[in-house]
Amino acid sequence: QVQLDESGGGLVQPGGSLRLSCAVSVSGSLFRVYALGWYRQAPGKQRELVANITRGNNTNYPDSVQGRFTISRDNAKNTVYLQMNSLKPEDTAVYYCNAKPPGWGPPLGYWGQGTQVTVSS
Questions:
Q1: What is the DSSP-derived secondary structure letter of residue 101?
Q2: Of the candidates 16, 20, 47, 113, which lies 20 to 30 Å from 65 by C-alpha distance?
Q3: Chain CA centroid to CA 112, Å
Q4: Per-residue pLDDT tens for 59-118?
Q5: DSSP percent split of the chain into helix, strand, coil, nearest 5
């Protein structure tokens, strides 16, 4: 089974920064072709896309995080990152890493167990 191990969550002041990491337990040749993403779910809200990145390093962000968050991938380390700057209380949520193979595996890909991000004074 593909495992995703997330780290980097925690408590931060408004305006602060956090960097989330997600290590994916697949071979390097497979990791290179996975689409990768970060999602979040706040209390009372549906899970929403935060950022995703393709095998070709194309990225996509919703308006809510555009200009503040950056997704990146390191294919040599089988790791995807989410750099979060200028954090707001509205960013408080459980953040989930996602990895999707091109044409096989679960329909929604593989998921990490989530890491809590809390933005508060």
A1: -
A2: 113
A3: 9
A4: 999 999 999 999 999 999 999 999 999 999 999 999 999 999 999 999 999 999 999 999
A5: 5, 45, 50
